[in-house]
Design a protein that fits this description.
Chain D: One of its GO terms (molecular function) is transmembrane transporter activity. The complex is a heteropentamer, with 2 copies of chain A, 1 copy of chain B, 1 copy of chain C and 1 copy of chain D. Chain A is of the alpha/beta class. Helix content of chain A is 37%, strand content 23%. Chain D contains 11 helices and no strands. The longest helix of chain D has 31 residues. Chains in contact: A-C, A-E, B-C, B-D, C-D, D-E. The structure holds adenosine-5'-triphosphate (2 copies) and magnesium ion (2 copies). The site of one magnesium ion (MG) has 4 residues of chain E, from α2.
């Protein structure tokens, strides 16, 4: 795998991936992380193929968020390696910026920029980071807003939208940068029940389009319907990974069984 | 011609006063301008807060202080003085019609106003132990409070009374005049001795040609012989 | 009152207002600059930078403004003039007292501004920084495009009072001898024996300015708040 | 070194004056402010709004100007000059206290009002739905919330008042700043007297903060003092 | 019904109700309410028998909270009447206080008094409103805290408890006044999923004890298990009321069906 990782890869965006489709999208090897003396992540190994859809679940504090934040370079880690599309993350700065251009991230708290309109939220990074000209940026933004089905809200401010709409804007904002991988950290858990559905639907659309997705969520229905594989974490370790059918109906680990009892009521 | 900047407080009549249009007038100004003419310098005037006027001189914000400054040993530690260009006497001043015994016994328990940091303050402190001193940042605030009646008397240089043109009750001097300082001098930076000597020479010339006497009389200042 | 104003005091007052407003405006501008720079410095992660900034704000907000102003004013005054004296050909140049006055006002107000910016900054959710990073913005871009606009939104009402404080602070300069509104009023009051006219004018100027200030900043706040209108 | 000690001893003569100005103005200011704020909250209307406008104006005018008006202007008014009021206004010390308390009232009343209106509505409703009366609700839900909300801004305001007392020297009150200034005018030494006075002021501020947060923790059980950004 | 409402009723607390058990606990007749020009509640009719357990549900903004706040006198209303245990709510002040003594209310945000300990929270109203002597008040409070299963937290402050524990304290605080009716406004919706269960269990205990309960909630499992009747509101009107079996399995109204599709995933 280290041989594959060192092949230089042209960055052609999410669609033109055929020639490198045997390169894993993400490869985490023996990764460990400490917060001070607290060992949050212990020896994580995870390989995600291109176009694969992974759901990560586990009890609170098990390190799910920390893991996917590491993939995006939002957190440092101390041991092991993370390779994203053949590019290793340990070398700092430049490489990190390159990786971030390929990896979109959506947070639990949406984190839209409250002082900008929906459209400006979607064009800002295109114009300043990717240097896309203004009118092109707006076209791309409107395209993505249509994809998440709220083009009519383009001129509003985030504060004027419902939670579900805000989260869909956050997804559109990420998509505008044409990432090849999307990371979601509990995208629905701060939403009212009625709004969860619309966001899950949007994510399902993405999954159908062949985007590589890693999603932390407790929506087990969604996981069952969408995921290629479910990764269960506890106390900083990956305890079990399996396709949804196997995971829900015949979990191997005792810890997984206990967790499923609690969550699926 | 070279440029010189002269400074004073701009509120110490009749030595220096600010007119309604913001320009200065007074004995200091007339003396200063005459000297400048004699030595052929291009002079401008600035004003500076009194308590900071010597540090400002040392910081080269201006070259000479011509501001009714009493010559004292404490000040000599920092600056050099010209020959005295006016003699000052200090008086007790009261509102016209007020009777006051100005001996230390008579003023015991009374409030006397004095300008902060002056030789007058030291004098009262030393000779009138039972008198309550009230210290003012400037002479005009002091006379204002005398008229209002917050102090029983002021002790200060005589000229500010005679120069007072404000409304309200008249102020008069009582008791014998006291010479608390060696006279009024112009202050220079110690490294400007040559400038000081030039000024002294010009003063001597004014003394002999009578300009100096005319100006003293114009502003009602005791002639210094 | 018209008489007094016509007899030259009117012009005096106009120039005093000019002086006060100029010093206040410059002081306001520079103190904000100081506030932003100190906040950045405190957050820069250099060893002790946060402590240094805290020390600055703590000490400067514990000392009487007038004491600080006198200290800084004379220090600066001497320092600037001494420096000028060292530069060949500049030794005769006299700096007006306004430069040290503006600088010392800015340094004193800068402590207030720094505290304001630090508080506003701390209120910005960590998620905003992370969203910026995960979209690939550089630190500078994220600062200018994302963080500062939001800090500005948070602190507008306080900026309004800071603006007013800037003007009020100029009153203290009258003690140092800068001919500002208060100094002009008190000289006028004493030399004409009509204190209420002069003090009245000065008070009116300050009150008018306070009203203007609150109006302007209420308007700015209104404009910023438009993104909160509506649901949620 | 011994010169500095002399300075220190001379300046310390003003400590009592500074402290008494500070404390007396603080107490009077707080009492007045509570009354003003309570009136505005309890009887909203044209009168309350006029009071608010007056407070607004006071907040907009520099203390120095107010000191000048009261000290040099008021004695020209016959009803002050020729009545018992003169016994108060003749004294620079009481003029300073009156001005300080007046300004303190203007700022503090706004802090009290602000703290009142920040009280969470839900807390009041919870008290109401338990059947508590109006006063009981105030006592159990509103007052603690006001303490909590008002603590930080009030601390800031108290410190500001402490600093403002230093302006009293402009009307001949010999407080810390007054003595420092006298030394300054006499010796022409700007820095040492002011630096010494500055150290004393910092000590006063540090102790004041300590006292306030201790008081707060005594009164408002069940939580520590909110972070004081002041 | 107005005849029944005018019969003066002795206040004997929730247990000694046998002689008046045919008086409805709550009776709302033709009640309408406006916020300014906005018609929040339109012509509400609702009769709740003693010991009955009602679950109110409906989309956000439909007026659920407003309705139950009216029952407790926290909101005024403009038309119609509300009669609680024979006592009409329109006459203000005194009567309102009497009604509040019979009706306990639990809010979404707990609203405990943060500066008082758990025990003080529970004894305060007893001592001030019902003038119960101190030691008796403490006994009653501890009894109720035991009922919600957190007697060991009595000396802590609300800020030191988890959300679920705080909500149970809020319930105990209400119960201490021995109300005959309990109103709940989305008591679990600001809780983490793991804490929802413990609060629902507490409420189920109450229901079993025969307390009259009106509860706004979206926990449909709870509604199905506990409720005698489910009231569905939309746009300020009561659209449908039915026993749970009927409501979930054969909703009559089309609006109800749409709502259920969304909520019950
Ligand atoms: N910046 C940090 N410093 C110290 N400890 C941290 C930090 N961030 C997270 N932790 C700790 O690391 C552990 C894992 O946190 P993480 O947020 O990854 O958990 P999670 O699985 O996402 O949980 P949740 O479901 O609650 O979001 C937790 O115990 C948390 O307290
Ligand atoms: N004080 C008020 N002033 C004006 N409008 C109000 C007020 N309180 C509530 N409303 C409006 O009344 C409507 C009903 O509000 P209510 O809180 O009763 O809805 P709800 O059914 O409880 O919704 P949710 O499920 O979101 O709590 C909403 O549209 C709301 O905006
Ligand atoms: Mg997480
Ligand atoms: Mg509600």
């Amino acid at each position: 795998m280290s041989a594959a990782a060192s092949i230089p890869m042209p960055d052609k965006g999410p669609i033109a991936m055929n020639d490198t489709s045997h390169t894993p999208a993400i490869e985490i090897v023996g990764m460990s992380k400490w917060f001070g003396s607290f060992h949050v992540l212990e020896d994580i190994d995870l390989k995600v193929k291109q176009g694969e859809r992974i759901v990560v679940c586990g009890p609170s504090g098990s390190g799910k968020s920390t893991m996917i934040r590491c993939i995006n370079g939002l957190e440092d880690f101390q041991r092991g390696r993370i390779v994203v599309h053949g590019q290793e993350l340990r070398q700092r700065a430049r490489a990190l910026d390159d990786v971030r251009k390929k990896v979109g991230m959506v947070f639990q708290q949406f984190n839209l920029f409250p002082h900008l309109t929906v459209l400006e939220n979607c064009t800002l990074a295109q114009r300043w980071v990717h240097k896309v000209p203004g009118s092109v940026a707006i076209d791309i933004a409107m395209q993505q807003l249509e994809k998440v089905r709220i083009p009519e809200q383009a001129q509003k401010y985030p504060g004027q939208l419902s939670g579900g709409q805000q989260q869909r804007v956050a997804i559109a904002r990420s998509l505008c940068l044409r990432p090849s991988i999307m990371l979601f950290d509990e995208p629905t858990s701060s939403l009212d029940p009625e709004m969860v559905r619309e966001v899950l639907d949007t994510m399902a659309d993405l999954a159908r389009d062949g985007m590589t997705i890693i999603c932390v969520t407790h929506e087990m229905g969604f996981a069952r319907g969408i995921a290629d594989r479910i990764v269960f974490m506890d106390q900083g370790r990956i305890v079990e990974q399996a396709p949804p059918a196997e995971f829900f109906d015949a979990p191997r680990e005792e810890r997984t069984q206990r967790f499923l009892e609690q969550v699926v009521r | 011609a070279r440029d010189l900047v002269l400074a004073n407080e701009g509120g110490f009549p009749p030595y220096n006063m600010t007119k309604a249009d913001g320009t200065l007038e007074g004995f200091d100004i007339d003396i200063g301008m005459s000297i400048c003419k004699i030595i052929g310098a291009n002079c401008t005037w600035v004003t500076n807060e009194w308590s900071g006027i010597i540090p400002a001189l040392m910081a080269r914000k201006f070259d000479v202080i011509i501001g009714g400054m009493g010559i004292t040993d404490e000040r000599r530690k920092t600056v050099v003085f010209s020959e005295p260009y006016a003699r000052t006497y200090s008086f007790f001043g009261v509102v016209e019609g007020k009777e006051l015994d100005v001996t230390p016994k008579g003023l015991a328990g009374k409030i006397v106003g004095v300008q902060q940091g002056t030789t007058n303050a030291k004098f009262i402190e030393a000779n009138y132990p039972d008198t309550k001193l009230q210290l003012y940042p400037s002479m005009d605030t002091l006379t204002a409070d005398l008229k209002i009646g917050r102090v029983d008397a002021v002790f200060g240089d005589v000229e500010p009374f005679t120069g007072d043109k404000g409304d309200g009750p008249k102020l008069v001097e009582i008791g014998e005049p006291v010479a608390v300082s060696e006279g009024i001098g112009m202050a220079f930076r110690p490294d400007d001795i040559s400038l000081r000597d030039e000024f002294n020479k010009a003063l001597g010339q004014m003394k002999s040609d009578g300009t100096w006497k005319t100006l003293s009389e114009k502003w009602g200042i005791p002639v210094y012989e | 009152m018209i008489d007094y104003l016509a007899s030259g005091w009117g012009l005096q007052f106009l120039s005093a207002i000019g002086t006060s407003l100029t010093v206040a405006a410059l002081g306001f501008f520079f103190c904000i600059l100081i506030g932003i720079l100190c906040t950045l410095f405190a957050r820069s992660g250099f060893r002790g930078s946060a402590g240094l900034v805290s020390l600055y704000t703590y000490v400067f907000r514990s000392l009487p403004d007038i004491l600080l102003l006198i200290l800084i004013f004379y220090t600066l005054d001497g320092a600037i003039q001494a420096l000028l004296h060292l530069v060949p050909g500049m030794s005769g140049v006299r700096l007006s007292a306004y430069v040290p006055a503006v600088i010392s006002t800015s340094i004193v107000l800068g402590a207030y501004a720094t505290e304001l910016f630090r508080a506003g900054w701390a209120d910005i959710p960590q998620g905003q920084h992370e969203a910026g990073r995960s979209l690939g913005f550089t630190t500078l871009q994220s600062l200018v495009l994302i963080i500062l606009p939001q800090v500005y939104r948070k602190i507008i009402p306080h900026l309004g009072s800071l603006c007013l404080i800037s003007l009020k602070e100029t009153a203290l300069l009258s003690i140092i001898g800068i001919p500002d509104i208060v100094r002009t009023a008190s000289i006028g009051a004493r030399s004409t024996g009509a204190p209420f006219v002069f003090y009245g004018i000065a008070i009116a100027i300050f009150v008018i300015f306070a009203i203007l200030c609150s109006r302007i900043f209420a308007h700015l706040e209104q404009r910023v708040r438009q993104d909160r209108a509506g649901a949620r | 070194m011994s010169v500095l000690l002399d300075y220190l001893l001379e300046i310390l003569q003003g400590l009592g004056t500074t402290l008494s100005l500070f404390v007396i103005a603080l107490v009077i200011g707080f009492v007045l402010a509570s009354a003003v704020a309570a009136f505005q909250i309890r009887f909203p209307g044209i009168v309350a709004r006029s009071i608010w406008s007056l407070m607004f104006c006071i907040r907009g005018v520099p203390l120095l100007l107010i000191l000048y008006v009261v000290y040099y202007g008021f004695p020209l008014l016959p009803f002050i000059r020729e009545t018992v009021l003169w016994t108060v206004f003749a004294s620079p010390y009481w003029c300073a206290i009156i001005c300080l308390a007046f300004v303190e009232m203007a700022f503090t009343s706004e802090i009290i009002r602000g703290a009142y209106y920040q009280t969470p509505r839900e807390q009041v409703e919870a008290a109401r739905s338990l059947g508590l009366s109006g006063f009981q609700t105030f006592r159990v839900a509103i007052l603690p919330a006001m303490l909590r909300n008002g603590f930080a801004p009030y601390t800031t305001e108290v410190i500001l008042l402490c600093k403002s007392t230093a302006l009293a020297f402009t009307i001949t009150v010999m407080d810390l700043m007054g003595y420092a200034n006298e030394i300054r005018a006499r010796t022409l030494d700007i820095y040492h007297p002011l630096l010494i006075a500055g150290c004393i002021y910092i000590c006063i501020v540090v102790i004041t903060r300590l006292i306030l947060s201790t008081l707060f923790n005594l009164v408002a059980v069940g939580g520590t003092a909110p972070e004081d950004r002041a």
